[in-house]
# Entry
Amino acid sequence: MKTSTVIRVQIGSEADLPHAVHEIYRTWRAGRAVVVLVSALEPIAPIADDLLRRAEQLGLPTQPRSLAALLALALDRSGLPATLVDSCPPAGLLTTEARGIVIVPDSTQSKPAQAAPGKTPPLRVALLGCGTVGGGVLARLLARPDLFHVTGVAVRDLERRRPDVPRGLLVRDPATLVRREADIVVELLGGTEPARSLIVSALELGRSVVTANKALLASDVGALTRLAERRGVSLRFSASVGGALPALEAVRRAALSGRLQSISGVLNGTCNDVIDRCAAGLSFDEALTAAREAGYAEADPILDLDGSDAAQKLALLAREAFGTALDWRRIPRRGILGLDRSALETAARRGQAVRLVATCERTAAGLRASVQPLEVPHDHLFAKARSADNALRIESRDGRVTDLTARGAGRWPTTEAVMADLFDLATEGVEVAA
# Structure
């Protein structure tokens, strides 16, 4: 991150926090360090329970004295690496790569520049899926009626209680919803079918698509991308790799600036969280249960635990890094199902930490890829990725190294990545039918 951007925000209440987070995240994922100047106003409404819980987990006061502190908590909830400082930083801090995002109370109390009124109608969005991530995306869409109009939400069970979802938006048949007039279809069903058929139908009908479906994309991203190009629409999938970690964007930028030698990373937040809980003394089953309760593990986490999820993500990253389509099923992989506390304790005695590491590198014989648990030094980038964090290291052939960390699992980190794609489409001007 060689360039930095100063963002000035004024927050009148907690309801303004998501809008600020969206703006900060989109700037950060574009490869810039971000300094956020926040008007230091007092909170005027009760703090949301999830922010209070996060403050307690981090050992922070549960009544932050300024909305700058609340913004820091909101960024943390979305999995972003932010640092809150007490006063305006020196000039050198504005360009440092290590900080990523710096939040500073703005003593000037000056108002941010106001955006020009929009001249286009809101984008019509059809949402397929309203689970953990889908519910988060819906909440964010409904909070921005100036930019988005939700045409419907496809769910499997119409009778399930969803107090925050307007009943009139719910539909049972996702295919019917896709056929309705819409500008963008957001697919958050997961799995390969009916997700693939629905995405193909949406693209054929001239709708842009935003998805987080790495299982589908790892096999079909090439064909779906070509279809989107033929139909003159967009296929966006930032959330498919890394949650809030902008892995695809970072690899794409690095590849444009020079030939890459290798990419490696901790790409599965579920495994990382389970490993850390085991290292803290829990049994594997106890650690998995705790990860599930924290929202970091699916009801059936086998694709995470056996390394398949990381292999799918690695295949998508390798396509951006090396221009080569890897069959994720042929990537040698060994997950953490056989890992026990004794292995973690042995590694700790050697000053090492265990991480599930996905790697793809150039060799004389071609690309070599793998997913496997490895021991790394405690001061290594991957060891510093704790709980559900992800980490990515990109190495160029000329010796340049780019490191990134952010949370890779959970509702809000993935929601943030989906919303960033939607905001990008809104900013770029998706064609809206009359």
Q: What stands out?
A: The chain has three domains: 3-106, 123-242+413-428, 247-408.
